[in-house]
Amino acid sequence: MLAAQTRMEALLILRHGEQALLTLIIPIALLIGMSTIHIGELPEPRVNSVMPRILALAVMSTAFTGQAIALGFDRRYGVLKRLSATALPRWTLISGRVLATLLVVALQTVVLSVTALLLGWSPARLGLLPGVGLLVLGTLAFGAAGVLVGGALRPEIVLALANAIWFILLLAGGLALPAEDLPGPLSAIAGFLPSGALAEALDAVLVESTLPGLQPVLVLLAWGVACGAAAIRTTRLT
């Protein structure tokens, strides 16, 4: 049952046009553009510094924005209410959605990695395994935030709010520009946002070949726990 539910959820994500735009087209376009157009001072090859931020963007797009919007409209059309009335246990419904999101993030990572390698990307090999762990942690943290937004509000509000938050985290989290290049207060708060923390941690393991540091990991854990606890209290099936 879990395998069937995971497969269905993954196919629904991949077949959705807006999801495809968020999960693949925009990240690939930004990866190519930011790696080839000389905006800001980055060491060569630029793709080495750009790739961790794009991976963080891909995770945010799928686990937060995509899940929030999908959950909001599933609630509107009664999908969750009908599924909860079937023989599927609730843990299967939740686990299937989580695993489907992780599968889509894995697919994104493979596609973006192949694109980055063609652009000259040379990641630190010792950082690949920790990088996978950080992607899983980031997916869970952003997924909890997506459930919080999509599980309590009307779908029209979710659609607008999720895209607005995505844009804010893109800019303020240091994904469009490195955190150190952001003006004044933004550079100070970037590391405390989940997008900035994930990008910083991925940069440490994939570029610097060092441990991600305690702060970005704690920031991701804090966001995940806080959003998850709030989502448990506020999420409604309809």
From TrEMBL:
Which InterPro entries did the record assign? Answer: ABC2_TM, ABC_2_transport, Nod_factor_ABC_transporter
Q: Which residues form a coiled coil?
A: none
Cell compartment(s), UniProt = Membrane
TM ranges are 20-39, 51-73, 94-121, 127-150, 157-177, 213-232
Any Gene Ontology biological process: response to antibiotic
Q: Where is the ABC-2 type transporter transmembrane domain?
A: 49-232
Q: Which UniProt keywords apply?
A: Antibiotic resistance, Membrane, Transmembrane, Transmembrane helix
Primary location class:
membrane
Q: Which GO terms describe its cellular component?
A: ATP-binding cassette (ABC) transporter complex
What is this entry's stated membrane topology? Multi-pass membrane protein
Entry's Gene Ontology molecular function annotations? ABC-type transporter activity
This protein is called Multidrug ABC transporter permease
* Source organism per UniProt: Saccharopolyspora rhizosphaerae
